[in-house]
Amino acid sequence: MEITSAAFQQFLNQKKLMGSKCKKCGAVHLPPRPLCPECGATEVEWTSLSGKGKLAAFTTIHVGTTLMAQAGYDRKNPYCSGIVQLAEGPKVSARILNVDAQNPQGIKVGTPLTVDFVEQGQGDNKKSYLAFKA
Ligand SMILES: [Zn+2]
């Protein structure tokens, strides 16, 4: 299957975490890239990722997107967004679950995380978003 953001989204909807792997230099990317940014090769294939990683950086968000507001997040109920360093190497930004976003001083960089998928939206607009849980 061609490496596109639509195909990546389809995998997410199936609760599969797929990245791209360069056939030439072996670099792994998430979100997947049809062209390897390391060596410029276009021989890139899908690779299944373990979904294990650790928290590299994070921020708590008090005023989010309309979608997040509809999901019940606001100033009084913030959520956590972070950068996750995957076991396979790439870093990806995602929502971080099972942490107390109201007490960010209790959230530690280096916390082990596993992949999760959050469904949001209704009907045809329903789709899965990448998240990680502590
Ligand atoms: Zn490469």
Describe the structure.
- The chain has 134 residues and is mainly β.
- It folds into two domains: 1-49, no CATH class; 50-134, OB fold (Dihydrolipoamide Acetyltransferase, E2P) (Beta Barrel).
- The protein has helices spanning 5-13, 66-70, and strands at residues 18-22, 28-29, 44-48, 52-61, 79-86, 91-97, 112-120, 127-133.
- The strands form two sheets. It has a five-stranded mixed barrel.
- The radius of gyration is 16 Å and the shape is globular.
- 25% of the residues are buried.
- It binds zinc ion (ZN).
- The site of zinc ion has 8 residues, from loops.
- Residues 22, 24-25, 27, 36, 38-39, 41 line the site of zinc ion.
Summarize this structure as a short list of keywords or feature phrases:
single chain, 134 residues, mainly beta, OB fold (Dihydrolipoamide Acetyltransferase, E2P), 2 domains, five-stranded mixed beta barrel, three-stranded antiparallel β-sheet, 2 helices, 10% helix, 40% strand, globular, binds zinc ion
**CATH classification class of the largest domain:** Mainly Beta
Q: Which small molecules are bound?
A: zinc ion
Order of helix and strand elements from N to C terminus: HEEEEHEEEE
- What is the overall shape? globular
- How many structural domains can be distinguished in the coordinates? 2
Strand residues, percent: 35-45%
Count of helices? 2
Helix content: 10-25%
| Average pLDDT score | 94
| Low-confidence regions | none
- Ends apart, CA distance between termini: 32 Å
Question: Which architecture of the largest domain would the CATH scheme give at its second level?
Answer: Beta Barrel
Strand order of the largest sheet: 4-5-6-8-7
Reported by name, the CATH topology of the largest domain is OB fold (Dihydrolipoamide Acetyltransferase, E2P)
User: How does the major sheet shape up?
Assistant: 5 strands, mixed, barrel
